[in-house]
Amino acid sequence: MRTTLLRVAAGALSLALLMAGSAACGSGGDDAASASGGSVTWYTPMPEEPARRLAEAYEAESGVEVKVLRQSAGELLARLKAEAGRPQADVIGLASGDAGPLAKEKLIRSYKPGAEGIDKRFIDPEGYWHANELILMTVGVNADRWKEETGGAPLPKTWDELLRPDLKGQLVMPNPTLSGTGYTFVATQFFRTGDDAAAWKFLDEFHKLVGQYTDSGGAPSQLVATGEYAAGVSFAHDLLNVRGAGFPIEVVYPKPTGVVISGNALVQGSPNPQGGEKFVQWLQGKKASQMIVDLVHSYPVRGDVKLPEGAQSLAELDLVDYDPVRAGEMRDAVSKEFAKRYGV
């Protein structure tokens, strides 16, 4: 397969170098790219292996190469803004709440393809975001470490039950200024309390227990799995993945928990706009949707796709009234306040 996976650690590759390389590859080749279908560049926070497998599957069906850049959601949003006026991506993965601010800045564009098979609740009437999966905010607990640190206390059933003095330094969570996972956790506290002061009071107490803020959303599940921490904030699919690999992790759905719609958007002024549209449509199809569930262990937005193994159905869960529009609008202000309060 010709699929290209761009492995970019934070700070490892300058934006200028990336743009220069893309310009050099594309110079004088617009007509040839148009005739052959060219390639599609996909920025995504999806885990590396599933993203690669999806890109390869699309290439096998369409003959179009998908170049994948995998980074955290926060890093990708910053990159998209830095590339404004000269975008390098055709498609960017994001949470639905991020779409509104990006649309206002004219960084993404509207597109309204047919959405047959997609639950109507997960269709953007404005056409800016295109849902692929539902992601639940959960807590992973290492059973052995939890017993050791708490003396065998029952697993938490609510967010407030995590605020135990004996867990000081034993919790891990993603940095919400960099990670979409971390920000979803923070936003969930605002929506479940319904009060900014109460949310910050909870976060103040939670911060006292945190031993590490990670740069990526997937890191806490791995650190809890290996026993470095007793518990960690994580999306459900990350925990289901490591539990499926045989690690002693309990997946806790604190009441009420947050759920976000994750998908993709088309980048305004992208190098291959038609290629991006076709890729977005393919990602919403039944085959790709089932691949996402099987590879990522997230929840589907289609009714004809099976749930991930070991996952609780949405009907069984107490979900917070998560407002993706407000989450997107308040992200910058909340992230700045979080960084100021906790020095991250």
Total helices: the number is 13
Secondary-structure element sequence?
EHHEHEHEHEEHEHHEHEHEEHHEH
Radius of gyration computed on alpha carbons: 20 Å
What amount of the residues lies in strands? Answer: 15-25%
Mean pLDDT: 87
Helix-strand makeup class: alpha/beta
Helix amount: 40-55%
Sheet with most strands: 12 strands, mixed
Number of strands: 12
First-last Cα distance: 40 Å
Low-confidence residue ranges: 1-36
Tertiary shape: globular
Describe this structure in words.
There is one protein chain. The chain is an alpha/beta fold and 344 residues long. Helix content is 42%, strand content 19%. The protein has 13 helices and twelve strands. The protein has helices at 15-26, 30-36, 48-62, 73-82, 96-104, 143-150, 180-193, 196-207, 219-225, 236-244, 273-283, 286-296, 324-342, and strands at residues 4-7, 39-44, 65-70, 91-95, 108-109, 130-142, 171-174, 210-214, 231-235, 249-252, 259-267, 299-300. Strands 1, 2, 3, 4, 5, 6, 7, 8, 9, 10, 11 and 12 form a twelve-stranded mixed β-sheet that branches. α3 (48-62) links the parallel β2 and β3. α7 crosses α13. The termini are far apart. The model is unreliable at 1-36 (pLDDT under 50).
Q: How is this fold's topology laid out?
A:
Blueprint lengths: L3 E4 L7 H12 L3 H7 L2 E6 L3 H15 L2 E6 L2 H10 L8 E5 H9 L3 E2 L20 E13 H8 L20 E4 L5 H14 L2 H12 L2 E5 L4 H7 L5 E5 H9 L4 E4 L6 E9 L5 H11 L2 H11 L2 E2 L23 H19 L2
Parallel strand pairs: 1-3, 2-3, 2-4, 7-8, 7-9
Antiparallel strand pairs: 4-11, 5-11, 6-9, 6-10, 6-11, 6-12
What keyword list fits this structure?
344 residues, disordered N terminus, 12 strands, alpha/beta, twelve-stranded mixed sheet, 19% strand, 13 helices
